[in-house]
Design goal:
The chain has helices spanning 2-25, 32-52, 63-81. It is mostly helical. The longest helix has 24 residues, at 2-25. The protein is globular.
């Protein structure tokens, strides 16, 4: 069971990374890859936006980086359990 959760969390990390790269290559959020990745990652970013606000510091959105750190921490913790 722990391995399944770790697999899902690692998949989410990949989707976040793809979303970040896609935002650099195609900033238009209406293109297919961006719509797909945003559909998955926006609910993950919502708590971060609630805490930090949606403001972007110098044009940079730090919510993907924060979410990647959190997911990596959770995966590391779960690896210790399983």
């Amino acid at each position: 069971m722990v391995l399944v959760v770790i697999g899902i969390l690692k998949f989410l990390q990949v989707v976040i990374f793809v979303d970040v790269i896609a935002s650099w290559l195609s900033p238009d959020p209406t293109t297919f890859p961006r719509r797909f990745t945003r559909m998955i990652v926006e609910p993950l970013y919502a708590p971060i936006y609630a805490i930090l606000g949606r403001s972007q510091l110098g044009g940079l959105d730090f919510s993907p980086m924060i979410m990647l750190f959190l997911l990596n921490y959770i995966v590391g913790t779960l690896n210790g359990l399983g």
